[in-house]
Amino acid sequence: MALDNKAIEILSVNEVKDKIVTSQFLDQFIADNDKEPSWDGFVYIYGNKSKKKSDLKGRMPVQVKGKECDDHTKDKISFSMETTDLRNYLYDGGCVLFVVYIGNNGLTKKIYYAELTPIKLRKLLNEAKEQGHKTVHLQKFPTDENQKATIFFNCLQNCQKQASLGEGKLFSLEELQKEGVLENIVIPFSGVGFDDPQMALIKSEVYLYAKIKGSSIPQPIDIIPEDVHTKQNMDALISVEDKIFYTNYEVIKGINGVTLCFGSSFKMTFAENENSCKIKYKNSDKMRILAKDLDFLLSYIDKGYFKINEVKVPFDYKGADTDNFDIEKEREHLEYAQRIVDTLDILGCLDDIDINDMGDEDWRNLNRLGTAFIDKKPVKGLNTGLPIVCCMKVAKLRIVVHLEELEEKGTYEISDFFNDEFRVEFEDTKGNMLPISPFCIFHKDDFLTISNMKFEMLLPSYQKTEHHYETYNRANWFLLELLGAYDNADGIRKEKLIKTCDEFSNWLLEAPDEELDYLVKTLNRLQVIRRQREFNDDEIASLYEIVESQEKNDGCIVGAYLLLGQQQAAKRHFEKMNDKEQEEFVKYPIYKFWLTEEN
Question: Please, which domain of life does this record's source organism belong to (predicted)?
Fold first, then answer.
Protein backbone atom coordinates (compact mmCIF):
# COMPACT_ATOMS: atom_id res chain seq x y z
CA MET A 1 0.00 0.00 0.00
CA ALA A 2 1.46 3.37 -1.08
CA LEU A 3 2.09 6.08 1.49
CA ASP A 4 0.29 9.39 1.14
CA ASN A 5 2.20 12.64 0.57
CA LYS A 6 1.90 13.80 4.17
CA ALA A 7 3.33 10.52 5.48
CA ILE A 8 6.22 10.70 3.01
CA GLU A 9 6.95 14.31 4.04
CA ILE A 10 6.88 13.55 7.77
CA LEU A 11 9.07 10.47 7.40
CA SER A 12 11.54 12.39 5.19
CA VAL A 13 11.81 15.42 7.48
CA ASN A 14 12.18 13.23 10.57
CA GLU A 15 14.94 11.19 8.92
CA VAL A 16 16.91 14.35 8.08
CA LYS A 17 16.35 15.78 11.58
CA ASP A 18 17.52 12.54 13.19
CA LYS A 19 20.73 12.49 11.14
CA ILE A 20 21.50 16.17 11.79
CA VAL A 21 20.78 16.21 15.52
CA THR A 22 23.44 13.58 16.26
CA SER A 23 26.21 15.87 14.98
CA GLN A 24 28.25 17.68 17.63
CA PHE A 25 28.59 20.75 15.39
CA LEU A 26 25.10 20.96 13.84
CA ASP A 27 21.61 21.69 15.03
CA GLN A 28 18.34 21.73 13.10
CA PHE A 29 15.19 23.78 13.03
CA ILE A 30 13.12 22.01 10.41
CA ALA A 31 9.34 22.10 10.68
CA ASP A 32 6.95 19.25 9.84
CA ASN A 33 4.35 20.04 7.19
CA ASP A 34 5.97 23.49 6.75
CA LYS A 35 4.04 25.89 4.54
CA GLU A 36 6.88 28.34 3.86
CA PRO A 37 7.51 28.48 0.10
CA SER A 38 10.70 26.74 -1.16
CA TRP A 39 12.23 26.11 2.32
CA ASP A 40 11.58 23.73 5.19
CA GLY A 41 13.90 25.29 7.78
CA PHE A 42 17.54 25.72 8.69
CA VAL A 43 20.60 23.83 9.88
CA TYR A 44 22.71 25.82 12.33
CA ILE A 45 26.50 25.39 12.19
CA TYR A 46 28.68 25.88 15.28
CA GLY A 47 32.42 26.37 15.61
CA ASN A 48 32.75 23.88 18.47
CA LYS A 49 30.84 21.18 20.29
CA SER A 50 29.36 23.46 22.97
CA LYS A 51 26.85 24.87 20.45
CA LYS A 52 26.77 28.23 22.22
CA LYS A 53 25.31 31.25 20.44
CA SER A 54 28.72 32.89 20.58
CA ASP A 55 30.14 29.99 18.58
CA LEU A 56 27.50 30.12 15.82
CA LYS A 57 29.20 30.29 12.41
CA GLY A 58 25.95 30.64 10.48
CA ARG A 59 22.90 28.80 9.25
CA MET A 60 22.05 27.08 5.98
CA PRO A 61 18.52 27.03 4.56
CA VAL A 62 17.39 23.48 3.77
CA GLN A 63 14.69 21.94 1.63
CA VAL A 64 13.56 18.34 2.22
CA LYS A 65 11.85 16.30 -0.49
CA GLY A 66 10.59 12.74 -0.09
CA LYS A 67 10.05 9.98 -2.63
CA GLU A 68 8.74 6.47 -2.21
CA CYS A 69 11.36 4.10 -3.63
CA ASP A 70 12.50 0.63 -2.53
CA ASP A 71 15.83 0.75 -4.43
CA HIS A 72 18.40 2.12 -2.00
CA THR A 73 21.50 0.71 -3.74
CA LYS A 74 22.46 3.86 -5.63
CA ASP A 75 25.05 6.32 -4.34
CA LYS A 76 23.88 9.05 -6.72
CA ILE A 77 20.41 10.03 -7.91
CA SER A 78 18.66 12.74 -9.93
CA PHE A 79 15.63 14.73 -8.85
CA SER A 80 13.50 17.22 -10.76
CA MET A 81 13.10 20.63 -9.10
CA GLU A 82 10.95 23.60 -10.02
CA THR A 83 13.08 26.41 -11.40
CA THR A 84 11.06 28.84 -9.26
CA ASP A 85 12.46 27.14 -6.16
CA LEU A 86 15.99 27.19 -7.58
CA ARG A 87 15.70 30.90 -8.29
CA ASN A 88 14.45 31.55 -4.77
CA TYR A 89 17.44 29.65 -3.38
CA LEU A 90 19.75 31.82 -5.49
CA TYR A 91 18.19 35.06 -4.24
CA ASP A 92 18.53 33.80 -0.65
CA GLY A 93 22.23 32.97 -1.07
CA GLY A 94 22.11 29.17 -1.39
CA CYS A 95 20.51 26.08 0.10
CA VAL A 96 21.12 22.43 0.96
CA LEU A 97 18.62 20.17 -0.76
CA PHE A 98 17.74 16.79 0.78
CA VAL A 99 15.88 14.04 -1.04
CA VAL A 100 14.87 11.06 1.10
CA TYR A 101 14.00 7.70 -0.45
CA ILE A 102 11.30 5.94 1.61
CA GLY A 103 11.08 2.17 1.08
CA ASN A 104 9.27 -0.87 2.42
CA ASN A 105 6.22 1.13 3.48
CA GLY A 106 8.32 3.51 5.56
CA LEU A 107 10.61 0.95 7.21
CA THR A 108 13.78 1.83 5.24
CA LYS A 109 15.14 5.24 4.33
CA LYS A 110 18.16 6.71 2.52
CA ILE A 111 19.12 10.38 2.39
CA TYR A 112 20.66 12.13 -0.60
CA TYR A 113 21.86 15.72 -0.65
CA ALA A 114 23.07 18.50 -2.95
CA GLU A 115 24.94 21.67 -2.01
CA LEU A 116 23.14 24.38 -3.98
CA THR A 117 25.60 27.25 -3.86
CA PRO A 118 24.97 30.45 -5.87
CA ILE A 119 27.41 29.37 -8.58
CA LYS A 120 25.76 25.96 -8.95
CA LEU A 121 22.27 27.49 -8.91
CA ARG A 122 23.23 29.94 -11.65
CA LYS A 123 24.56 27.05 -13.73
CA LEU A 124 21.35 25.04 -13.25
CA LEU A 125 19.14 28.02 -14.14
CA ASN A 126 21.21 28.86 -17.22
CA GLU A 127 20.86 25.26 -18.40
CA ALA A 128 17.11 25.25 -17.69
CA LYS A 129 16.53 28.44 -19.72
CA GLU A 130 12.75 28.91 -19.93
CA GLN A 131 11.83 25.43 -18.66
CA GLY A 132 9.77 25.09 -15.49
CA HIS A 133 11.81 22.21 -14.08
CA LYS A 134 15.49 21.27 -13.90
CA THR A 135 17.14 17.99 -12.91
CA VAL A 136 19.43 18.22 -9.87
CA HIS A 137 22.05 15.57 -9.14
CA LEU A 138 22.44 14.42 -5.53
CA GLN A 139 24.71 12.00 -3.67
CA LYS A 140 24.19 9.89 -0.59
CA PHE A 141 24.41 11.69 2.73
CA PRO A 142 27.26 10.26 4.84
CA THR A 143 26.77 8.49 8.15
CA ASP A 144 30.09 9.72 9.58
CA GLU A 145 29.40 12.65 11.91
CA ASN A 146 32.51 14.58 10.91
CA GLN A 147 31.71 14.21 7.22
CA LYS A 148 28.20 15.55 7.84
CA ALA A 149 29.58 18.59 9.63
CA THR A 150 32.21 19.16 6.94
CA ILE A 151 29.49 19.32 4.26
CA PHE A 152 27.76 22.16 6.09
CA PHE A 153 30.97 23.97 7.10
CA ASN A 154 32.15 23.93 3.50
CA CYS A 155 28.79 24.79 1.93
CA LEU A 156 28.24 27.69 4.34
CA GLN A 157 31.71 29.07 3.58
CA ASN A 158 31.20 28.92 -0.20
CA CYS A 159 27.69 30.40 0.00
CA GLN A 160 29.02 33.29 2.08
CA LYS A 161 31.84 33.93 -0.39
CA GLN A 162 29.37 33.82 -3.29
CA ALA A 163 26.55 35.71 -1.52
CA SER A 164 27.16 39.03 -3.28
CA LEU A 165 27.25 37.36 -6.68
CA GLY A 166 23.52 37.49 -7.47
CA GLU A 167 23.14 37.59 -11.24
CA GLY A 168 26.33 39.61 -11.77
CA LYS A 169 29.02 38.51 -14.21
CA LEU A 170 31.23 35.56 -13.34
CA PHE A 171 34.69 35.87 -14.86
CA SER A 172 36.64 32.96 -16.30
CA LEU A 173 40.33 32.31 -15.64
CA GLU A 174 41.11 33.19 -19.25
CA GLU A 175 39.39 36.57 -18.96
CA LEU A 176 41.22 37.48 -15.75
CA GLN A 177 44.57 36.43 -17.20
CA LYS A 178 43.91 38.40 -20.38
CA GLU A 179 43.12 41.52 -18.35
CA GLY A 180 46.30 41.02 -16.32
CA VAL A 181 44.57 41.31 -12.94
CA LEU A 182 44.96 37.72 -11.69
CA GLU A 183 47.40 37.30 -8.79
CA ASN A 184 46.70 33.69 -7.81
CA ILE A 185 44.01 31.07 -7.25
CA VAL A 186 42.73 29.90 -3.86
CA ILE A 187 40.55 26.91 -2.93
CA PRO A 188 39.02 27.59 0.50
CA PHE A 189 38.02 24.55 2.52
CA SER A 190 36.49 24.16 5.97
CA GLY A 191 35.73 21.00 7.89
CA VAL A 192 36.34 18.93 11.01
CA GLY A 193 37.77 15.58 12.09
CA PHE A 194 39.82 14.56 9.07
CA ASP A 195 43.19 12.79 9.31
CA ASP A 196 44.11 13.46 5.68
CA PRO A 197 43.37 17.08 4.65
CA GLN A 198 44.07 16.32 0.98
CA MET A 199 41.58 13.45 0.86
CA ALA A 200 39.01 15.52 2.75
CA LEU A 201 39.38 18.23 0.12
CA ILE A 202 39.05 15.71 -2.71
CA LYS A 203 35.85 14.23 -1.29
CA SER A 204 34.25 17.64 -0.77
CA GLU A 205 32.68 20.08 -3.19
CA VAL A 206 35.16 22.86 -3.86
CA TYR A 207 35.22 26.11 -5.79
CA LEU A 208 37.95 28.30 -7.22
CA TYR A 209 38.41 31.91 -6.17
CA ALA A 210 40.69 34.48 -7.76
CA LYS A 211 42.80 36.96 -5.86
CA ILE A 212 42.51 40.14 -7.92
CA LYS A 213 45.08 42.92 -7.94
CA GLY A 214 43.88 45.79 -5.77
CA SER A 215 41.15 43.75 -4.06
CA SER A 216 41.27 41.97 -0.72
CA ILE A 217 38.13 39.91 -1.44
CA PRO A 218 38.61 36.70 -3.49
CA GLN A 219 36.31 36.59 -6.52
CA PRO A 220 34.51 33.34 -7.49
CA ILE A 221 35.44 31.95 -10.89
CA ASP A 222 33.03 30.59 -13.45
CA ILE A 223 33.94 26.92 -13.02
CA ILE A 224 32.91 24.03 -10.78
CA PRO A 225 35.87 21.63 -10.51
CA GLU A 226 35.12 17.95 -11.09
CA ASP A 227 37.30 14.90 -10.51
CA VAL A 228 39.47 16.79 -8.04
CA HIS A 229 42.78 15.14 -7.30
CA THR A 230 46.12 16.10 -5.79
CA LYS A 231 49.65 15.27 -6.91
CA GLN A 232 52.68 15.20 -4.69
CA ASN A 233 56.29 14.32 -5.50
CA MET A 234 57.95 12.26 -2.78
CA ASP A 235 61.73 11.95 -2.47
CA ALA A 236 62.71 8.35 -1.77
CA LEU A 237 65.06 5.65 -3.03
CA ILE A 238 63.14 3.09 -5.09
CA SER A 239 65.24 -0.06 -5.38
CA VAL A 240 65.26 -3.78 -6.02
CA GLU A 241 67.99 -5.42 -3.95
CA ASP A 242 70.97 -3.06 -4.30
CA LYS A 243 69.96 -1.43 -7.58
CA ILE A 244 68.37 2.01 -7.28
CA PHE A 245 65.92 2.75 -10.09
CA TYR A 246 64.34 6.04 -9.01
CA THR A 247 64.99 8.75 -6.45
CA ASN A 248 61.38 9.92 -6.24
CA TYR A 249 57.83 8.87 -6.98
CA GLU A 250 54.47 10.57 -7.39
CA VAL A 251 51.41 10.19 -5.16
CA ILE A 252 48.05 10.96 -6.78
CA LYS A 253 45.04 11.11 -4.50
CA GLY A 254 41.56 11.02 -6.01
CA ILE A 255 38.01 10.14 -5.11
CA ASN A 256 38.62 6.49 -6.06
CA GLY A 257 41.77 6.02 -3.98
CA VAL A 258 45.50 6.63 -3.96
CA THR A 259 47.84 5.91 -6.87
CA LEU A 260 51.61 5.60 -6.59
CA CYS A 261 53.49 6.28 -9.84
CA PHE A 262 57.02 4.99 -10.36
CA GLY A 263 58.79 6.19 -13.48
CA SER A 264 56.52 6.90 -16.43
CA SER A 265 55.03 3.44 -16.92
CA PHE A 266 54.24 1.79 -13.59
CA LYS A 267 51.30 2.54 -11.29
CA MET A 268 49.90 0.98 -8.11
CA THR A 269 46.36 2.01 -7.13
CA PHE A 270 45.00 1.43 -3.64
CA ALA A 271 41.22 1.69 -3.53
CA GLU A 272 39.53 2.75 -0.32
CA ASN A 273 38.48 -0.13 1.96
CA GLU A 274 40.27 -2.75 -0.16
CA ASN A 275 43.17 -4.88 1.05
CA SER A 276 44.84 -5.39 -2.32
CA CYS A 277 46.10 -2.96 -4.93
CA LYS A 278 45.85 -2.82 -8.72
CA ILE A 279 49.12 -2.83 -10.64
CA LYS A 280 49.22 -1.31 -14.11
CA TYR A 281 52.16 -1.13 -16.47
CA LYS A 282 52.37 0.19 -20.03
CA ASN A 283 55.56 0.22 -22.07
CA SER A 284 56.77 3.70 -22.90
CA ASP A 285 57.31 4.70 -26.53
CA LYS A 286 60.58 6.36 -25.51
CA MET A 287 63.60 4.10 -25.45
CA ARG A 288 65.43 5.45 -22.41
CA ILE A 289 62.27 5.41 -20.32
CA LEU A 290 61.35 1.95 -21.60
CA ALA A 291 64.76 0.51 -20.70
CA LYS A 292 64.54 1.85 -17.16
CA ASP A 293 60.87 1.18 -16.40
CA LEU A 294 60.78 -2.29 -17.93
CA ASP A 295 63.96 -3.25 -16.08
CA PHE A 296 62.30 -2.12 -12.85
CA LEU A 297 59.14 -4.15 -13.47
CA LEU A 298 60.98 -7.34 -14.46
CA SER A 299 63.28 -7.01 -11.44
CA TYR A 300 60.22 -6.49 -9.24
CA ILE A 301 58.61 -9.65 -10.63
CA ASP A 302 61.83 -11.69 -10.39
CA LYS A 303 62.59 -10.76 -6.79
CA GLY A 304 58.97 -10.49 -5.65
CA TYR A 305 59.39 -7.07 -4.05
CA PHE A 306 60.80 -3.58 -4.36
CA LYS A 307 61.70 -1.09 -1.63
CA ILE A 308 60.66 2.48 -0.93
CA ASN A 309 63.66 3.48 1.14
CA GLU A 310 63.75 0.53 3.57
CA VAL A 311 60.07 -0.45 3.29
CA LYS A 312 59.47 -3.60 1.26
CA VAL A 313 56.53 -3.64 -1.15
CA PRO A 314 55.66 -7.26 -2.09
CA PHE A 315 54.40 -8.10 -5.56
CA ASP A 316 50.61 -8.48 -5.56
CA TYR A 317 49.96 -11.16 -8.19
CA LYS A 318 46.20 -10.91 -7.67
CA GLY A 319 46.14 -7.20 -8.41
CA ALA A 320 48.57 -7.25 -11.34
CA ASP A 321 47.15 -6.80 -14.83
CA THR A 322 49.42 -9.25 -16.69
CA ASP A 323 47.00 -10.68 -19.28
CA ASN A 324 48.96 -9.21 -22.19
CA PHE A 325 52.37 -9.36 -20.52
CA ASP A 326 54.64 -12.11 -21.88
CA ILE A 327 57.66 -12.06 -19.56
CA GLU A 328 60.08 -13.75 -21.98
CA LYS A 329 59.13 -11.44 -24.84
CA GLU A 330 59.47 -8.46 -22.54
CA ARG A 331 62.97 -9.62 -21.57
CA GLU A 332 63.90 -9.57 -25.27
CA HIS A 333 62.24 -6.19 -25.57
CA LEU A 334 64.32 -4.91 -22.66
CA GLU A 335 67.55 -6.28 -24.11
CA TYR A 336 66.94 -4.43 -27.38
CA ALA A 337 66.01 -1.20 -25.60
CA GLN A 338 69.16 -1.36 -23.47
CA ARG A 339 71.25 -1.91 -26.61
CA ILE A 340 69.81 1.29 -28.07
CA VAL A 341 70.44 3.23 -24.86
CA ASP A 342 74.02 1.94 -24.72
CA THR A 343 74.54 3.12 -28.31
CA LEU A 344 73.28 6.60 -27.48
CA ASP A 345 75.43 6.74 -24.35
CA ILE A 346 78.58 5.77 -26.25
CA LEU A 347 77.88 8.58 -28.70
CA GLY A 348 77.30 11.03 -25.85
CA CYS A 349 73.73 11.61 -26.98
CA LEU A 350 71.52 12.50 -24.00
CA ASP A 351 68.31 12.77 -26.02
CA ASP A 352 65.73 10.01 -26.24
CA ILE A 353 64.16 8.24 -29.19
CA ASP A 354 60.38 8.12 -29.57
CA ILE A 355 59.41 5.11 -31.67
CA ASN A 356 56.43 7.06 -33.04
CA ASP A 357 58.93 9.28 -34.88
CA MET A 358 60.75 6.33 -36.47
CA GLY A 359 60.52 5.46 -40.15
CA ASP A 360 62.14 2.54 -42.01
CA GLU A 361 65.37 4.44 -42.72
CA ASP A 362 65.52 5.58 -39.09
CA TRP A 363 65.42 1.97 -37.89
CA ARG A 364 68.10 1.02 -40.42
CA ASN A 365 70.35 3.85 -39.24
CA LEU A 366 69.80 2.89 -35.62
CA ASN A 367 70.78 -0.71 -36.33
CA ARG A 368 73.84 0.51 -38.26
CA LEU A 369 74.95 2.54 -35.26
CA GLY A 370 74.45 -0.48 -33.01
CA THR A 371 76.59 -2.60 -35.33
CA ALA A 372 79.35 0.01 -35.33
CA PHE A 373 79.43 1.04 -31.68
CA ILE A 374 78.11 -2.00 -29.76
CA ASP A 375 79.26 -4.89 -31.97
CA LYS A 376 82.29 -2.91 -33.21
CA LYS A 377 81.90 -4.31 -36.72
CA PRO A 378 81.99 -2.70 -40.17
CA VAL A 379 78.62 -1.64 -41.56
CA LYS A 380 77.60 -3.10 -44.90
CA GLY A 381 75.01 -2.21 -47.50
CA LEU A 382 75.68 1.52 -47.79
CA ASN A 383 76.16 3.57 -50.93
CA THR A 384 79.67 3.98 -52.25
CA GLY A 385 81.48 7.29 -52.26
CA LEU A 386 79.88 8.72 -49.12
CA PRO A 387 81.56 11.79 -47.55
CA ILE A 388 83.94 11.15 -44.65
CA VAL A 389 81.69 13.16 -42.32
CA CYS A 390 78.06 12.15 -42.35
CA CYS A 391 74.98 13.12 -40.35
CA MET A 392 72.77 10.10 -39.66
CA LYS A 393 69.11 10.75 -38.90
CA VAL A 394 67.36 8.61 -36.27
CA ALA A 395 63.84 9.89 -35.58
CA LYS A 396 64.40 13.48 -34.40
CA LEU A 397 68.08 12.89 -33.65
CA ARG A 398 70.96 13.99 -35.87
CA ILE A 399 74.15 12.08 -35.16
CA VAL A 400 77.46 13.11 -36.73
CA VAL A 401 79.83 10.25 -37.52
CA HIS A 402 83.12 9.73 -39.34
CA LEU A 403 83.05 7.26 -42.25
CA GLU A 404 86.01 5.30 -43.57
CA GLU A 405 85.26 3.35 -46.74
CA LEU A 406 86.67 -0.19 -46.84
CA GLU A 407 87.64 -2.34 -49.80
CA GLU A 408 84.40 -4.31 -49.77
CA LYS A 409 81.82 -2.38 -51.78
CA GLY A 410 79.36 -0.37 -49.66
CA THR A 411 81.18 -1.24 -46.43
CA TYR A 412 82.39 1.37 -43.93
CA GLU A 413 83.98 1.73 -40.54
CA ILE A 414 81.72 4.14 -38.65
CA SER A 415 83.26 6.01 -35.73
CA ASP A 416 82.43 8.97 -33.52
CA PHE A 417 83.43 12.14 -35.36
CA PHE A 418 84.30 13.85 -32.07
CA ASN A 419 86.67 11.12 -30.93
CA ASP A 420 88.61 10.70 -34.16
CA GLU A 421 91.73 12.76 -34.75
CA PHE A 422 92.41 13.71 -38.35
CA ARG A 423 93.99 16.70 -40.04
CA VAL A 424 91.81 19.29 -41.75
CA GLU A 425 93.25 22.13 -43.82
CA PHE A 426 91.97 25.16 -45.70
CA GLU A 427 93.56 27.25 -48.44
CA ASP A 428 94.27 30.91 -47.69
CA THR A 429 94.28 33.74 -50.23
CA LYS A 430 97.95 33.06 -51.03
CA GLY A 431 97.35 29.40 -51.80
CA ASN A 432 98.85 28.15 -48.54
CA MET A 433 97.25 25.10 -46.90
CA LEU A 434 96.72 25.86 -43.23
CA PRO A 435 95.51 23.48 -40.49
CA ILE A 436 92.20 24.14 -38.72
CA SER A 437 89.98 22.36 -36.24
CA PRO A 438 87.77 19.75 -37.93
CA PHE A 439 84.87 21.28 -35.99
CA CYS A 440 85.02 24.40 -38.17
CA ILE A 441 82.37 22.74 -40.36
CA PHE A 442 79.73 23.41 -37.70
CA HIS A 443 77.42 26.41 -37.89
CA LYS A 444 74.58 27.83 -35.79
CA ASP A 445 71.96 25.27 -36.84
CA ASP A 446 74.36 22.40 -36.15
CA PHE A 447 74.87 23.55 -32.56
CA LEU A 448 71.09 23.53 -32.15
CA THR A 449 70.32 20.19 -33.77
CA ILE A 450 73.23 17.74 -33.62
CA SER A 451 72.39 15.26 -30.88
CA ASN A 452 75.90 14.01 -30.11
CA MET A 453 77.52 17.46 -30.06
CA LYS A 454 80.38 17.43 -27.55
CA PHE A 455 80.66 21.09 -26.62
CA GLU A 456 83.49 20.46 -24.18
CA MET A 457 85.75 19.34 -27.06
CA LEU A 458 85.31 22.39 -29.29
CA LEU A 459 87.73 24.87 -27.71
CA PRO A 460 90.49 22.30 -26.97
CA SER A 461 90.41 21.34 -30.65
CA TYR A 462 91.10 24.94 -31.70
CA GLN A 463 93.76 25.36 -29.02
CA LYS A 464 95.78 22.29 -29.98
CA THR A 465 95.62 22.86 -33.74
CA GLU A 466 98.94 24.11 -35.13
CA HIS A 467 98.96 27.90 -34.72
CA HIS A 468 99.11 30.37 -37.63
CA TYR A 469 98.01 33.93 -38.39
CA GLU A 470 94.39 32.89 -39.11
CA THR A 471 93.86 30.77 -35.97
CA TYR A 472 92.22 33.42 -33.78
CA ASN A 473 90.25 34.99 -36.61
CA ARG A 474 88.68 31.65 -37.55
CA ALA A 475 87.96 30.90 -33.90
CA ASN A 476 86.27 34.30 -33.54
CA TRP A 477 83.87 33.54 -36.39
CA PHE A 478 83.22 30.19 -34.74
CA LEU A 479 82.32 32.05 -31.51
CA LEU A 480 79.76 34.15 -33.41
CA GLU A 481 78.10 30.97 -34.67
CA LEU A 482 77.97 29.68 -31.09
CA LEU A 483 76.39 32.93 -29.87
CA GLY A 484 73.77 32.82 -32.61
CA ALA A 485 72.90 29.29 -31.55
CA TYR A 486 72.72 30.26 -27.86
CA ASP A 487 70.15 32.96 -28.61
CA ASN A 488 67.86 30.31 -30.12
CA ALA A 489 68.54 27.41 -27.74
CA ASP A 490 66.84 26.26 -24.55
CA GLY A 491 67.34 23.84 -21.69
CA ILE A 492 70.63 22.03 -21.14
CA ARG A 493 71.83 22.84 -24.65
CA LYS A 494 71.53 26.56 -23.89
CA GLU A 495 73.57 26.11 -20.70
CA LYS A 496 76.30 24.23 -22.58
CA LEU A 497 76.39 26.84 -25.33
CA ILE A 498 76.90 29.82 -23.03
CA LYS A 499 79.61 27.94 -21.13
CA THR A 500 81.39 27.24 -24.43
CA CYS A 501 80.97 30.87 -25.53
CA ASP A 502 82.42 31.99 -22.22
CA GLU A 503 85.47 29.79 -22.66
CA PHE A 504 86.05 30.85 -26.29
CA SER A 505 85.70 34.58 -25.56
CA ASN A 506 88.12 34.40 -22.63
CA TRP A 507 90.68 32.57 -24.75
CA LEU A 508 90.29 34.99 -27.66
CA LEU A 509 90.77 37.92 -25.30
CA GLU A 510 94.36 36.73 -24.86
CA ALA A 511 95.07 36.85 -28.61
CA PRO A 512 97.71 39.36 -29.76
CA ASP A 513 96.13 42.55 -31.13
CA GLU A 514 97.90 42.07 -34.45
CA GLU A 515 96.14 38.71 -34.90
CA LEU A 516 92.68 39.71 -33.63
CA ASP A 517 91.44 43.29 -33.44
CA TYR A 518 91.32 44.54 -29.84
CA LEU A 519 87.90 46.15 -30.29
CA VAL A 520 86.43 42.98 -31.80
CA LYS A 521 87.69 40.56 -29.16
CA THR A 522 86.73 42.93 -26.32
CA LEU A 523 83.25 43.56 -27.71
CA ASN A 524 82.63 39.84 -28.18
CA ARG A 525 83.78 39.07 -24.65
CA LEU A 526 81.42 41.74 -23.32
CA GLN A 527 78.43 40.53 -25.33
CA VAL A 528 78.96 37.06 -23.87
CA ILE A 529 78.99 38.56 -20.38
CA ARG A 530 75.85 40.63 -21.10
CA ARG A 531 73.95 37.46 -21.95
CA GLN A 532 74.69 36.19 -18.45
CA ARG A 533 74.43 39.25 -16.21
CA GLU A 534 74.54 43.04 -15.89
CA PHE A 535 77.87 44.80 -16.41
CA ASN A 536 80.13 46.00 -13.60
CA ASP A 537 81.83 49.42 -13.64
CA ASP A 538 85.03 48.16 -15.29
CA GLU A 539 83.09 46.50 -18.09
CA ILE A 540 81.04 49.64 -18.71
CA ALA A 541 84.29 51.59 -18.87
CA SER A 542 85.59 49.14 -21.50
CA LEU A 543 82.52 49.78 -23.63
CA TYR A 544 83.06 53.54 -23.47
CA GLU A 545 86.68 52.96 -24.50
CA ILE A 546 85.37 51.24 -27.63
CA VAL A 547 82.97 54.13 -28.31
CA GLU A 548 85.72 56.73 -27.83
CA SER A 549 88.39 54.77 -29.70
CA GLN A 550 90.31 56.60 -32.42
CA GLU A 551 90.12 53.48 -34.52
CA LYS A 552 87.30 53.90 -37.03
CA ASN A 553 85.10 50.85 -36.61
CA ASP A 554 81.44 51.84 -36.79
CA GLY A 555 80.32 48.22 -36.35
CA CYS A 556 82.07 47.93 -32.99
CA ILE A 557 80.82 51.36 -31.92
CA VAL A 558 77.22 50.41 -32.77
CA GLY A 559 77.66 47.15 -30.86
CA ALA A 560 79.09 48.95 -27.83
CA TYR A 561 76.20 51.41 -27.74
CA LEU A 562 73.73 48.50 -27.98
CA LEU A 563 75.36 46.78 -25.00
CA LEU A 564 75.21 50.06 -23.09
CA GLY A 565 71.49 50.29 -23.87
CA GLN A 566 71.93 53.57 -25.78
CA GLN A 567 69.65 52.85 -28.71
CA GLN A 568 69.62 56.31 -30.30
CA ALA A 569 73.41 56.57 -30.34
CA ALA A 570 73.63 53.08 -31.85
CA LYS A 571 71.12 54.04 -34.52
CA ARG A 572 73.05 57.21 -35.35
CA HIS A 573 76.32 55.35 -35.95
CA PHE A 574 74.52 52.54 -37.77
CA GLU A 575 73.30 55.10 -40.32
CA LYS A 576 76.93 56.05 -41.02
CA MET A 577 77.60 52.55 -42.32
CA ASN A 578 77.13 51.77 -46.01
CA ASP A 579 74.39 49.40 -47.19
CA LYS A 580 76.66 46.36 -47.35
CA GLU A 581 78.01 46.99 -43.84
CA GLN A 582 74.50 47.42 -42.47
CA GLU A 583 73.37 44.23 -44.19
CA GLU A 584 76.25 42.32 -42.60
CA PHE A 585 75.78 43.89 -39.16
CA VAL A 586 72.17 42.76 -38.73
CA LYS A 587 73.36 39.17 -39.22
CA TYR A 588 75.69 39.35 -36.21
CA PRO A 589 74.50 37.96 -32.84
CA ILE A 590 75.00 41.36 -31.18
CA TYR A 591 72.07 42.68 -33.22
CA LYS A 592 69.77 40.90 -30.76
CA PHE A 593 70.31 43.88 -28.44
CA TRP A 594 68.79 46.24 -31.01
CA LEU A 595 65.46 47.31 -29.55
CA THR A 596 62.48 46.64 -31.81
CA GLU A 597 58.73 46.41 -31.30
CA GLU A 598 59.12 42.64 -30.83
CA ASN A 599 61.57 42.95 -27.90
Answer: Bacteria
